[in-house]
Amino acid sequence: MGQRVGVVGGGQLAWMMGKAAHDLGIDLVVQTPKRSDPAVAVAAETILDAIANAEATAQLAQQCDVITFENEFVDLEALGSLAEQGVKFAPRLSALAPLLDKYHQRQFFRNLGIATPEFEAWGDRSRSDSSLPPSFQFPVVLKARRHGYDGQGTHVLRSANEVQSVLDNQPEVDWLLEAFVPFERELAVMAARFADGSVVVYPVVETQQENQVCCRVMVLPDVPTDVAQQAEAIAQTVLNELEVIGIFGFEFFLTAEGRLLVNEIAPRTHNSGHYTLDACKTSQFEQQLRAVCGLSPGSIQMCCAGAVMVNLLGFELSQSDYQERRTALERIANAHVYWYGKTEARPGRKLGHVTVTLQGKNSSKLRRNADAIAQDVESIWYPSVSS
Prior knowledge:
Layout lengths: L3 E5 L3 H4 L2 H7 L2 E6 L12 E4 L5 H8 L4 E4 L6 H9 L8 H4 L5 H11 L6 E3 L18 E5 L9 E4 L2 H10 L5 E5 L5 E9 L5 E3 L3 E6 L2 E7 L5 H18 L3 E9 L5 E7 L9 H4 L4 H9 L13 E8 L9 H8 L4 E5 L10 E9 L4 H19 L1 H4 L1
Parallel strand pairs: 1-2, 1-4, 2-3
Antiparallel strand pairs: 5-8, 6-7, 6-8, 9-10, 9-11, 9-13, 11-12, 12-15, 13-14, 15-17, 16-17
């Protein structure tokens, strides 16, 4: 094939594209700020510069056929001039425009008639006014409208004092105020749209968060059919409305009434889809490359009855590679350990993940096995659990 795909961002998501790119005969050209960033190891060429530097992206464009994104920390306005000059972005910049700011994303959902938690922009309020609007009551959620990830920039607050503390500590941030949803489960789905308008939707999965960071993903046949249909319909609606080319991640709250509320959309590969590397015929990373290179969709069929993915999060400040723990994780039956090669660990940072594939036909037994495996992984990885 000989295509060259530019990736803006050189973290683990771009790194995990490496094998798929190799198998498809695609060269990755990566724009990333540090030579130690994970994707540098798999890139054919690297532009060492800031993600939001459009001048660096112009250099990237000279070395590839199409440019895609690993994260949302980009300057769309600056990139617009490149698009006008004929640089091909996938997804296109106009598809990203309503999604990068969380408040604009909520407005986009509302205009499409897609249910979300109640929300309001918070940035134009006096920083000395921590009172809630009349329609809100504690607890509430404050989210940074831009550049939040892995729990950073998201706060669940239970009093006016807590609100004021956040406003005082981060005075330059524009906030989205959101009603807290007493959800039954958090669900997610990956979906990809292709140049011919076809859409493929992966299985709906359950995500389990701690401190607003995803710790586990359960891929099990216990999501009710009507709920899965809601998720698929929302994904189809959004991707078709935006005329996307590429893969998107959708995160949902499932209420006690069986209703789905959209939490967020990620316009790229996503943590909740890492299981596809080992549990599906076509991973989310291969699907992304297929879409942006104009290839046909790959099969989303599961290769196993279920799977559990556990993130390996940093729990200390360290430069260790945790080889002993990783070796112990590799001894778990049907385990696939991915280590991102980051040189510095810090609390909450995603350093790697483990996916364990499951076999069997009994849904309840699969759930019990998945829960037990997640506990085993975490007892090996986290010293507070294993001590």
